[in-house]
Structures
1.
Amino acid sequence: MTDLVELAKRRGFFFQSSEAYGGVSGFYTYGPQGASLKERVEETWRERFALAEGHMQIDAPTVMPEPVFEASGHLDGFDDMLVECAECGESHRADHLIEGATDIEEAESLPTDEVASLLDAHDIDCPSCGAPLAGQPVDEFNLMFETNIGPGTSQTGYLRPETAQGIFVEFPRLKEYARGQLPFGVTQVGKSYRNEISPRNALVRTREFTQAELELFVDPDGDEPDVSSVADVEVTLYPAENQPEGDYVETTVGEAVAEGVVDPWVAYYLGVATEWYETIGVDFERFRYRQHQPGERAHYATDCWDAEADVSAPDEAPEWIEIAGYAYRGDYDLSKHGEHGTENFTVFTQYDEPKTVERASVDPDMSYLGPEFGGAAAEIADALAALAERDRAAFEGDEVTVDVDGESYTVPTEKTGFEFAEETEAGRHVTPHVVEPSIGIDRTVYTVLAHAHEEDEVDEGERTVLRLDPSVAPTDVAVFPLMDKDGMGERAHEIATTLRGEGLDVTYDDSGNIGRRYRRQDEVGTPFCVTVDYESVDEEPETVTLRERDSTDQVRVPSADLASVLADLRAGETTFDDL
Ligand code: GAP
């Protein structure tokens, strides 16, 4: 990590923000190379998860009013465990300290008092100053950044901790755009904010980061995914029950569904995601899908599989990081916003044929209930209505008994107005369930860099190389004049301009010897370099040298063919060996 972070800073991938003012933990700026790499990763994500799947895209605000997060459960449940050092005042994630000092892998699923006891039992010291943390309280710390909306303090808002809420709150409108047809998906790529207790490991745990999320709304009783298009995709699964033994399951998406290992909707997106990870150059030897343990799941999820990547350097102990979560959120979000919001968060789904249903109803005689039960009469009427829907047999006798606030009330059946009738229904109101692939773009970028990062030996000696896939490499091609004289500089500029006109991202470099220029491009992952030399300007038809980053091989290519040769190489339609 140290080497990669040093390279990232030196070559303009990413670096800590606001360093002129001392910097602040958890905020990173992407430099010219990193911004381009990140944008390309996002673009490939959009192509695969939004365009290829036919899903909508939206762009919602990052500040949302407090009631949204009361409804979503983030105000109450979006906490991490905080322990403060009495000596130096530094804050730490208590669960991470436990994981570092014991064999416990997911300490965040433990209750806070147990984590406090473990700090004592293992004599854990403050990582900053070494003072003992035993006896220090462990508190729940809410991760949302609070702000005031407008002058004064009249309206509290929060920076969104996940882009998902921007999709859920707009569901009443989005379902109209989908013409009320389930299933439909809505995607969003944007910033999320979490006031992490201890940001760490560069892009891995920051306070401001980019998420790419898809919320797929499905009918829990009607919709089934067609997994056939990804059935043969190979996946490495690490189910919750296998984790104590450390056993992976090497399988395909189709088999995982057939054997009931993964929910079909979640499995479908593991297949889609695997195809996407392959295009951006994730190394599957250092990758797995790990199912959450029940105590580890977020407050909204009924099941979740994390994509995890090992980002350790070769020959070091594995260092697994979570780069995405593929969750089944059930109806949690839309039900909560339906309860708290003022709009309708259900979808009316039409039956193929109208259905005749038996419906039980009550019409209580309030002139009897009022005098008999006083202030409880209205609630007794509601309880009778609920009972009629639930258990019509309860109305077969002379009397019916209902419970209201722990008290039992008995009502003569003839006073309930109980009726039983047949009705024809065209459809029903459904609260859709949500399937959510939630990708952390920054951690994905970090993984792509870590998996591409290599030190190797070439003719000129040792080099550092980023073997980035051409689809995400920040620069498509670098153009050099061998020397900036005898017309080579002018010609190289013209070639660079032509290639830019073809839509390629081109770097021009004429400083230093040619070997150093190749090294610089290898370090930022530029897949191809073009050199204009004496032969280029002296001979007809004009040719240039084309060099491949990974093999360092070089061939002469006619300048007139350069753009199409590069297009074929980038698309994988030609290999360098073919040339
Ligand atoms: N909407 C679901 C959700 O937000 P999550 O597992 O909390 O789920 C999804 O976050 C992804 O966002 C993670 O897998 C991770 O890649 C990224 N992420 C979360 N917190 C982050 C942080 N502090 N810094 C960088 N990335 C983060």
2.
Amino acid sequence: MASINKKRETIIVLDFGGQYAHLISKVIRNIGVYSEIIDPKKQENLKEFLENSTNNIKGIILSGGPKSVYENNAIMINKNILEKGIPLLGLCYGHQLIAHMANGKIGPAEKKEFGETEIIIDKQSKILNSIDKHTKVWMNHGDSILKLPNNYESIAHSANTPIAAFKHKKLPIYGMQWHPEVSHTKQGTKMISNFVLGICKCKRNWKINKFVQAAIMQIKNRVKESRCIVALSGGIDSSVATALVGKAISKNLTAVYVDTGLMRTGETEDIYAAFSDFGINLKIVYAGTRFFTALKGIKSPEQKRKIMGMEFIKIFEEEAKKEKADYLVQGTIYPDRVESGMAGNAAVIKRHHNVGGLPKKIKFKGIIEPLEDLYKDDVKKIAKELKLPEKIINRQPFPGPGLAVRIIGEVTPKKVAILQKADLIVREEIENAGIANRLWQYFAVLSDTYAVGIKGDNRAYGQVIAFRALNSRDAMTAKFAELPWSVIRRISIRITNEVNEITRVVYDTTDKPPGTIEWE
Ligand code: XMP
């Protein structure tokens, strides 16, 4: 779907491969201004953005990056960006790149700076307006600007970096060697808002509470009387996309939820409770038998994933055909677009996160992605505004292949039933202990190992179950959670007591890396 308002004031963040491009964009959005991340390697994207008169680009931030500007394969951009009169702010690599493009000199710093550093402001400037003369910033660089280009002047220094920030004498071009976007830079948000509000003169009109009404109007105008279909997984993104489009076109939307038979206890019921009164057509496809047949005899994790994905697509294709829908709704969010290199481009059918892809056989008139410009926390805010139940809003990430990747070896209905019981105990105990909201994920895994035990007065020979609880910010890395022993003990006792087939319970103490979050 096209952006809500292509003419809205936008700050572009050129992502030179630093870790923080999303953070810059997020800080700008929190200030109340819309921001987009662009990959500067895709010069045509950048050119298209700059030349497209429908985009109201108020300023460009050049992010940090891992390279030195004089390395062979360092990412460069066209120098004429310096002459367009658009306000520019370079951060770290971006700071050095601006100086480099304007014929300054960059080289290895005498002393590298990593971490919290004090800078001293030497000269008044709009970019450092109202910042304390001595302030703590976050540095992370091996190179420095050794000599500024003509018409540029230094405005701040640190003990090891004489040119820690600069400004152009006439044009709105600035650079900072440090990272104002990270929270360790004490007055970083003020620095960014100096650029965005003070220099670029943006109005603060990106507000998430205005989003819902605007999105509903736009969907109505686009879709008119046509029919739409959405694959509802129960994850927050597809749930919010469903709810938004549902508000716009109600019965002209069909949400297809596939119960693969590999869901956790209560999952399908929660979806039904959340969406059955939503005014849309909710179609729950019970496909357990189909999935178990397809998975029969399959032990390899990759094979399982592939089969689950293919089966899901087949089912969705069948349903889409029956519905004769013109539009496909997807819960794509902004980081999905950036990761798949689609930011700034027209909608493309993305690989569905939960499954292996989406229907190729069905030709849709268009794709509607109402969340395509949003970050996850914005999606959560909208979910609350749309009054989706807490269970959906706070749902843990759950893999598309479901419990199939939490059962080692062949997947059978019997093993699924065992795992569902144990998993419910893990969830109940963690939630009852009041620690659930501190954890990223917590779940049980059924191993294919057997162990001897005693149940009642008898020898028992049963299966080993593992459970996992993790802290993470983004699932890229994760640490196993140091759960209270009392919680671990209760989970263990309950599982061995209440799940007949289990004789042993182990707690998974593997971080990611070296482990992954899921076992398969
Ligand atoms: P791993 O196991 O790769 O998982 O460390 C990272 C995160 O992704 C979730 N996950 C999936 N999510 N479809 C999804 O939508 C999948 O196939 C899938 N596999 C793993 C996992 O639960 C964790 O949050």
3.
Amino acid sequence: MAAKPQKKISAPSYGKLLGELRHTFQTGKTRSLDWREQQLKQLIRLLEEQEEALERAVIEDLGKPQVEAYTSEVGFVKAEARHALKHFRKWARPVKMSTPLFLKPGSSRVEYEPLGVILNISAWNYPVHLSLGPIVGAIAAGNCCVIKPSELAPAASRTIAELVPRYLDPQAVRVVEGGIPETTALLEESWDHIFYTGNGSVARIIMAAAARHLTPVTLELGGKSPVFVDKSAALGVAARRIAWAKAFNAGQSCVAPDYVLVEHEIKDKFIELLGKTFQSFLGTDASKSEDYGRIINERHFDRILGLVDKQNVVYGGGADRTSLFIEPTIVDEPAVDSPLMTEEIFGPVVPILAVSDIEEAIEFINGRDKPLALYIYSENKRNHERILRRTSSGGVCINGSMYQLSNPSLPFGGVGASGMGNYHGEYGFRCFSHERAVLVRGTRIDPKQAYPPYDDATRRMMKKLM
Ligand code: NAD
């Protein structure tokens, strides 16, 4: 009997989808300020009316406490959309620029034009925030967009794919669900901008694919964000704010404090306080706390426990694979070349290393990739300045951790290995806009010396003007 012909599984193709969105863009529909306003209002409506559904989805994916599901996902994007709604008309205004004498009579301005069709590829750790947050800027700037949520947060991905077409203009905003094959196929197309949130290895794939079409990219990456605590620090506040940031989303935040450098005189006291703080937040058995999330999947669970393996655990260390629970864990003095200190932890583990002084801390930080965030706990303003002037990072928070990203007036993004480009608030609008130079020349004066054949009078005139 002849073998049945195999059904060919073809890779998805998104040329048609891109063509439809490009057509919408070319009609000029999304450039209209009224359309942008209406879409931002619709996004706010989606977040308000579907708050529960979205929260349920992130709770299903990550076991997030309800407060976290609201503040860092639904509430965050809503605040971002409201801020854009209030300001985007001002951001979109052309900016008048000066015109040098040799171009007069004339006038100059910068106009902000939308880029076209944006692809937003997002990560699983804040699945609503990272899928919908970037499109606030994209819509405010007048673009069409495709959202590709992370397949590792399937409930959020499904919910976003179901809700977005019900609220946002389907001619301009679409959702594509899927994993590597779908993203690979999306990357075959020629987008006008790719916005990617995730790890640095995949960022290299994204950038290489974008290079084929000369597509600009924004890369929102992560890495090891250091904390420095000096002996002048308000130690109780430092312990609370570091423990809070490390327990939030079970440490699975791109801006979570990764490790702590602490002046040696206060190390023991700080470790004791940090442990007590975790306990006061989550009780003696954190697995029973309603205020503590879970690890996204078994792969990441095993990876995090692997980092802690054979380390000097001085607090926590408990874990349960079935429920993907890992207790907040403090590691004292890990070897600096162990994976715990060379890889991004992305989990609720705090390695603590003593340093003799601020100079040693600066040297340690500068000996590694430029981090996404840098945290300083100190009451000494000179120390703030020393760290600010002599290190580099995407952002800084002094006497706090993670809060820097919730101010919509500040740019959010990395530098070097922690990312490229930034967004939030007006920076999100600029991220998805082209700054177009417009020069308007008068025709009343048009001296013949400006044109060939040039003579001495031309040279003399040009030397005066330039
Ligand atoms: P992830 O596994 O969800 O991947 C991110 C996206 O890349 C997904 O949409 C996924 O489908 C896609 N992808 C994965 N492999 C791919 C491949 N081979 N080809 C094409 N596409 C592919 O998320 P992740 O990378 O585990 O996210 C965690 C990382 O992201 C951490 O390093 C974290 O610090 C960083 N992060 C950064 C920010 C930020 O705003 N800077 C925010 C969140 C997370």
